[in-house]
Design brief:
mainly beta, Immunoglobulin-like, about 35% strand, DNAAF6, PIH1D1/2/3_CS-like, dynein intermediate chain binding, PIHD3 protein, protein-folding chaperone binding
C-alpha cells in the first residue's frame, strides 16, 4: 500500500468519513427539537383512478421531503439552517438538530418557511433520484 507524499500526514481516507460528521457536536448541551418527516408525491387522475404511471404510495415514488420542526419560543431571525445533499443542520439559541436525511436531496433547491403561530419551521426539499421505471419525469 503506497501513500502519496501530499497526503502522507492524513490519518484517514475522505471516503471513510460519513457525510455530515463535520456538523456533529456531541458536547453541545442544546436539546434536540421535536420533528417529523413527511413525503409528498405529485399524482394526477391517471394515477388515482387508472394506475397508469405505476406510482404507489411508497416513499420510492415521492418527489419531496417535508420536515416539520417544532421550535417553541424561537424567532425567525434566530434560526440558522444549513442543508447538504444528505444532511440538515439546524441551530437556534436553545435547540440543535443534526438530521441525516433518508434520501439525497437537491440542496440548491428547497424552501423553508416559519409558521410563527404554530412555532414550526417547515422545510421542503426535492429528492434527488436516479431515473428508473417509476421516476422517469
Amino acid at each position: 500500500f503506497q501513500v502519496k507524499s501530499e497526503t502522507r500526514k492524513t490519518i484517514w481516507n475522505t471516503e471513510e468519513v460519513p457525510e455530515g460528521s463535520e456538523f456533529d457536536d456531541t458536547w453541545d448541551p442544546r436539546e434536540q427539537p421535536e420533528y417529523e418527516i413527511l413525503f409528498k408525491q405529485s399524482v394526477g387522475t391517471e394515477d388515482v383512478f387508472f394506475g397508469m404511471t405505476g406510482k404507489d404510495p411508497s416513499t420510492a415514488c415521492c418527489e419531496d421531503i417535508v420536515i416539520k420542526i417544532k421550535l417553541p419560543e424561537t424567532k425567525y431571525s434566530d434560526i440558522t439552517l444549513d442543508i447538504q445533499d444528505k444532511v440538515l443542520d439546524l441551530r437556534t439559541p436553545k435547540k440543535k438538530l443534526l438530521l441525516h436525511l433518508p434520501y439525497p436531496v437537491n440542496s440548491k433547491e428547497g424552501r423553508a418557511r416559519f409558521l410563527s403561530e404554530e412555532e414550526i419551521l417547515e422545510v421542503t426539499l426535492r429528492v434527488s433520484r436516479q431515473f428508473d421505471f417509476i421516476n422517469f419525469a
